[in-house]
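Summary for the steering committee. The consortium agreed at its last meeting that each partner would contribute one worked example illustrating the joint modelling workflow. Our contribution is presented below. We chose a case with several input lines so that the handling of multiple components could be demonstrated. No manual editing was applied between input and output; the record is shown as generated.
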Amino acid sequence: MSTPVAFITGITGQDGSYLTELLLQKGYVVHGLVRRASMFNRSRIDHLRADATVGAERLVLHYGDLNDLTSVRRLLRKILPTEIYHLAGQSHVGLSFEIPEVTCGENGMAVLGLLEIIRDLGHPVRFYHAASSEIFGRPAQAPQDEQTPFNPVNPYGAAKAFATQLCRIYRDSYGVYACSGIAYNHESPRRGENFVTRKISRAAARIKRGEQRELALGNLDARRDWGYAPEYAEAMWRVLQRDQPDDFIVATGETHSIEDFLSAAFGSVELDWRKHVTFESRFVRPAEAWNLSGNPAKAKKLLGWEPATRLPRLAELMVRADLASLSD
Ligand code: NDP
Ligand code: GDR
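What follows is the complete predicted structure of the assembly.
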């Protein structure tokens, strides 16, 4: 069997880094798209680039940007990957109200552009689209499944809904092998520092060490279905291993409030979050999604995928990692 070749957009992000580790373990050659920044933005994959057992020929990085799909087309024509994992894009829901055009361009139109490239590629390739629970916004039913109607309430969710529907259209109309993993929140020590879980774990560690006193947050009543990111990378890979393309909910099915997460994170280092958390209105969004809880039954049945890590363990492992990094 020939060596599988993956192309990952968003390789420098949380999910991209875990997926790269997984695919390298499975013997893939991994090509990743890296955008140009004024400073190196590869800290999440530096350990892989330094790993002598991986080597430069098995992990290849290319400069590129979703706002320059001509260069991405050129790369794909040259690499001819067997699988594309499209994870790149502006991923902060709150910020999508502040930079809606960038958000919709990267999460919506860029997916359409990639589907067009794949349609013309003349080479069989499987395409994974990182869809989100935010496509459901304020759903009438909970938990949601693959049939739940889209009802996004922010620009990010609207763009992801557009892209999810386009994957279905290209699959049905042109036979493109395109799948959406409709993932609910997944977290890890590599989570960006302005997402609520990482903000909390980092603050708990810093307060414990005396480096910070307060943590300013927005809406504490919000509830989310939180899982552990490395397990979601495994689901992504499984989605593309099936003969027929399809969409899958990737979730734990359990929801918790921000207060629950605070309690688990601060509790793990014997702190009382109520003594440290303050309210800041700038973190409150113009509209908040609610009722988001995913039913992963289809993924369990057809992919053999099941989440293992949940609260409070998830919060604890994040705080522990933040404490360890402060000791470095
Ligand atoms: P991150 O924000 O950690 O990573 C996003 C990645 O996209 C980074 O590598 C970033 O590069 C890259 N990127 C952003 N804009 C561009 C661009 N214009 N051109 C090229 N690359 C770009 O996100 P996650 O890893 O958490 O999520 C991965 C995907 O899954 C995203 O599409 C997200 O919307 C989606 N998703 C995530 C969920 C989660 O809970 N994590 C749940 C559901 C969906 P750089 O490092 O330079 O910033
Ligand atoms: P989310 O994650 O919007 O669900 O998107 P985030 O961690 O940003 O927010 C979760 C909830 O916490 C509330 N909240 C705060 N959020 C942030 N970021 N900062 C705060 O200070 C704060 N205080 C309260 C928010 O209002 C919200 O209710 C994530 C991203 O990974 C998306 O890319 C992905 O699609 C979805 O998860 C599923």
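The chain is about 40% helix and 15% strand. Residues 196-222+256-292+311-327 form a domain with the UDP-galactose 4-epimerase; domain 1 fold (CATH 3.90.25.10).
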